Amino acid sequence: MSRHVIAVLPGDGIGPEVTTEALRVLRAAAELHGFDLDTTEFAVGAAGVAEAGDALPPATASGVTQADAVLLGAVGHPSLAAAEGRRRPEAGLLALRQRLGAYANLRPVTVHPALAHASPLRPERLEGVDLLIVRELLGGLYYGQPRALEPDSAVNTMRYSVAEIERVARVAFEAARGRRGSVTSVDKANVLEVSQLWRETVTRIAADYPDVRLEHLYVDYAAMRLVANPAAIDVLLTENLFGDILSDEAAVLSGSLGLLPSASIGDGPGLFEPVHGSAPDIAGKGIANPIGAIASAAMLLRYGLGESEAADAVERAIVAVLSAGLRTPDIARPGEATLGTRELGERVAQAVLQGNVARV
Predict the structure, then answer these.
(1) Which of 113, 155, 180, 319 lies deepest, with the highest CB count within 10 Å?
(2) Residue 95: which of 103, 104, 86 has the closest Cα?
(3) Which CATH class is domain 120-254?
């Protein structure tokens, strides 16, 4: 029986709640498909500051590199909104990505037919939406130097190397080969020299993938395309800042940030987390949507552990539960009965173990 080591970082706010349900489903998948999970919990974000005065404590930084994959809940807390340096929860997340060498962030966006009502877009505009956002995660404005905040001015630096662009572009083109064979690369090449380098490099890499169609869009037009004709997009390739913004915009298609997963992959163990934040306003109320975390667990199985059949089982279970009309408040119609975080997680785990989409 194979054994997989997972570092679990529940984090802040609703992070521990949704992570608990993701682990519940992971264990159900492991039981069904005959492998063992060895999980160890570590602090990160505001929890890391409380434990060790550091948003990425040394024990966490060491532990994640020894795991096969990392499951993260969310980071952020209002009490540390003005914190600086390593006491800022978000700094812990950036340091974690660097520690893992996680340079490519994968965010799939699909629309479940039963949840078309949850999106502000018309249902006919959502038909056929199945896109993958590939976001460069270790470069650009978030990491560029110099950076400074002064009393009457501030500076951030957007910088990319050819090598950084090449490696994330190849992730996008490889993904497109297994999908519909199309990459839409996003930049602002009419204004930014960095984007000119981005476009030149992506075009050159495309020559190695003659079976994949490449188009370039300026970021403003890409934002419009995401809501005007999202079904036309297969793989959306973008740098760090643009990807951060566009991926949250794409969440509107699905109807809730609570539904969307992500995988950050690269040179070390993969990092898997829902795209939503820590949502401190609903933390502890038991109403957070765990689907994004559970879907992230499915990505962990597929990309982090190589357990593709188990990943398929989790994804089928999510579809079964949603098709059966089970909802948390964020995706329910007015007056529609809802389940809490734990109850919905339990139903997904049951669906995995039953292996029958007709019974949830």
Answers:
(1) 319
(2) 86
(3) alpha beta
